[in-house]
Amino acid sequence: MQRLLFFIFVSLFSFSQIIFADESQNTASTEETTIVKSAEPMVFVPISYDKGLNVSTSDGTTKIRFNSLLKFRYFYLLNDRAGTTDTSTFQIPAARMSFAGNAFKEEYKYGVQLEFAGGDTRLLDFFTEYDYKPSFKLRVGQFKVPYSRQRLASIGNLLFTDRSIADEEFNLNRDIGLMFHGVLAHETFEYFLSAFNGNGLNQTEDNNKWPLGIARISYMPFGYVPYDERLVDDPDFKLAIGAAGGYSEIMEFFNSDTTIDPVKTIFASSDIVLKTNRLMFQGEFYYRRKDPDVAINQALPTVNAMGYYAQFGYFILPEKMIEVGARYSQVFTDIDSTDDYTAEISPIINYYFYKEHVKAQLEYAYLLTARSTQADINDHQITAQLQFKF
Predict the structure, then answer these.
(1) 212 within 8 A of 195, measured Cβ to Cβ
(2) Average pLDDT, stretch 362-368?
């Protein structure tokens, strides 16, 4: 822990020297007088729309972009569990507002995102970033952990109504921490180096003995591939191959006894994306190993888990923006002691209005829970969703 804190301190100190180096060179002083110039008033250009509602100064040094996302959903779940009834309901799975931009200089960036769905207002993202150059950026605050490719994609840019069951099981979502990242070699390589508390979204307490450290790298031989599942804006063939890994020592539950060793956890994932002007394929594999302290938790063995998904999308009528897709996903939560698993088979059809701004989706999902000691559970779910994104 001491080495990590020393590394963070040295890194931040080095960045402060870079940030203020140019400013210190341009500061003139004499022994007789010091002239202080008043700041010039900001001049704003008219409000415009480009991937969001934009407000900017005329020189572009300060700007802000507003975005909103709403998902309205109806789903029917044919429940196969004994003693339970089917579910038929309307939902609002997402109602978000966000704003991002830069302040005073183009390289001083920030982002904020709020979630209003579910009856409570939640802070999702709140970060600031120093964009020194494309190959070297520093972000601090609360934001997505750079682990799962599908999780890094915005929920407004998904092929299906939601992410796969594998991503729901193994993703690391958002956390509080810092991250170095950038693109190299004409945007053919991308890297992330990060450290987080490891306690998840909006947690004010920190009960780790060793923070969550995550590293990720991607190879993109035909140019940069963004973290989304959209086909609309990808006319050229693209390929991305990625891998991520991490380690943490986090208490499973908050405990004030610091002499108890936490659960040592290893994370690993790999992914691939292929895109043409009408076709997209994406797949990802996850692995997780939890190693509790045997001396304290003798009844808790080491648990190895794995999961994966594979999905594709295809525009059958690109001029009318009609898209079909299919996905298969599987999760094994304990591969050493049981053959139990859960699986998802999902076809979908999407219709786009005004490109990606309004999207109607109809999805069927076959959800299988295979159990070695009991009868399998076979659930069927139909989801109709309307998405507005501005």
Answers:
(1) yes
(2) 97
